[in-house]
Amino acid sequence: MPEADSQSFAQYLEILKKRELPIIDDVQGVKARLKSDDCAAGDIAKVIGNDPVLCLYAHHEAAEKSKGRTGEVAGIDHALSVLGLQGCEPIFKSLTRLEEGTSREYHQLLAESMMASIIAEVITRERGGNVHELAWASLFARVAEWVLYWQQHRRCWQVRRMFYRKPFQQDKVTQSLFNFSYPEFQSAICEQLLLPAMNQRLADFSLVPVIREMMQVIHLYREQDLRLEECSRELRMHLSAPEMTLLLANKVAQAMCSPWLRNSWSNWFDLLAIHSHIKDHQLKKLLWDCCRKAERMNVHVGEQGMVSALFCELSPSPYHLYMPSKDAAKKKAQAKLEQKQRAAEKPSQPASKKKPTGSVSVVAPKPKKPKTQSASSSKEEVIHLYEPKQQAQVRKFTNKMLDAPGSFEHIKKLVDEALSVCLNEMQFDRAVFCGLSKDKESIKSLMSKQSSAQEKIPGFQVVLNQSPLFNKFMQKQTFLQFDKQKHAKYWSQLPKFIQEDERLKQFVFTSISYNGRVRSFLMADRVNSQHAFEPILLADYKKFAGALASALRHLSGHGR
């Protein structure tokens, strides 16, 4: 199999144009069947329909022949009706078969595409829509990956691993590995091979703008508290789009065919249930039917088969051979550290000019400049208040608010414990919880906590008409790290106790939205210590605020 160091965008397209992508079926057997007298279109459809690459070539040939006609080629039966038996012969010219034992990733990828087509067909029949169009387009949704896996299988495992870890950053990984964007490559393939318009739309379809909302929707769905009418219009359009059928069918197929997955399966399964409006037990039964149909079509993947994800069976990743083991990585890091230490201990000697034989010159080494006190103590001054022990406690409480909001007796108890976590674990000096007044014209402090009696926050009220800054926080849940220098023009709109406290240089402020609109606010600072906020603290604080919003929504809905 070819494994070039780098290939251009056009070279990959040329592989498809010349039909160099290998097929799974026996080429000679198919050619012999075409020449037999009793050959019928149904026999050819069974052969071609079980091989994604042959389906791709058949679609291209039929699309070229039907240019200018209304409608698109949708399905292998439609393609063969356009071509006829004689029109099938050009498809099998200069084709190669995938050799046994080569590129199991490529073989599995083709099987996943077949499985995705079966899933899309079954889901569309239940949900409604053009069954043949969506099933056919789902089959070709990952043609770009077919080419990349065939040419660069050792690079593509990184793309595959990114699907497991961060599925929405796959495009960035492809850009860094191949120097071109995956959506652009897929779009160019759609144009060259005349793929269905749905594939072109899928190349431009992205879930990145709605990732945060989507994860919240999954959580609410599991809590049986999902109300789609409260979601943003953009998210609802994404969830109901026909492109979502293609994307989810391929993601679920990829997860089902990869039993070593641990986190991706349940998320994609829940999204498919939300998208198709099918209950979990019914959806799982439909996926079982898809597995049985794939088995009848001789679609085989791996050793455990495609039903392993339904049983939650796990197995080690097949890509461990491409990755250094943990012991090897530790040894490599230790060797680098020792090399740096030896280089630091070795005295630096200036290069001396060559002297004639017999002459001896002694060059005294230059004395090292002593480090200044400020330079030596600069590292010691870096103090991290937010340590791993505190991180674990914060994340534990965040998960409690998400998974068990009913464990809190009432809203006041929830807010009290949340403020205590802000002080004791996040190492803030002061934290205050504010609420929106009934007339929605002002913000009033409701509860506050401080690390010492001297740092007590006085009660305050902010009129929204007099502070336009807060109107931005009223539109949706928003986080901002206020800095006195960076946000000097807004400082006058803040409460008086902030303006009058000269020690306060920065603080964090978050609006909290639940039940459809912003209802409360959370503020915290380090006025006493004046230590900077660690980046990991800010990341955990945002998740903490989101979990607090979820818990407030649950408790308010139950009248607590």
The largest pleated sheet is described as: 6 strands, antiparallel
Helix content: 40-55%
What's the total number of strands? Answer: 6
Average pLDDT taken over every residue = 79
Structure classification: alpha+beta
Going across the biggest sheet, name each strand in turn: 3-2-1-6-5-4
Fold and architecture overview:
This protein has 560 residues and is α+β, with helices and mostly antiparallel strands. It is built from 24 helices and 6 strands. The chain has a 6-stranded antiparallel sheet. 33% of the residues are buried. The N terminus is likely disordered.
Quick overview:
This protein has 560 residues and is α+β, with helices and mostly antiparallel strands. The protein has 24 helices and 6 strands. Helix 6 (104-127) packs antiparallel against helix 7 (131-139).
Keywords:
six-stranded antiparallel β-sheet; 52% helix; 560 residues; disordered N terminus
Architecture blueprint of SSEs:
Elements: H1 9-17, H2 27-35, H3 41-49, H4 52-65, H5 76-88, H6 104-127, H7 131-139, H8 143-151, H9 153-165, H10 170-178, H11 182-192, H12 197-203, H13 211-222, H14 233-240, H15 242-256, H16 264-276, H17 280-296, H18 326-345, H19 373-377, H20 388-403, H21 411-424, E1 430-436, E2 442-450, E3 461-463, H22 469-475, E4 479-483, H23 496-500, E5 506-514, E6 517-525, H24 535-557
Antiparallel strand pairs: 1-2, 1-6, 2-3, 4-5, 5-6
Helix pairs in contact: 1-11, 3-5, 4-5, 6-7, 6-8, 6-15, 6-17, 7-15, 8-9, 9-10, 11-12, 12-15, 13-16, 15-16, 20-21, 20-24, 21-24
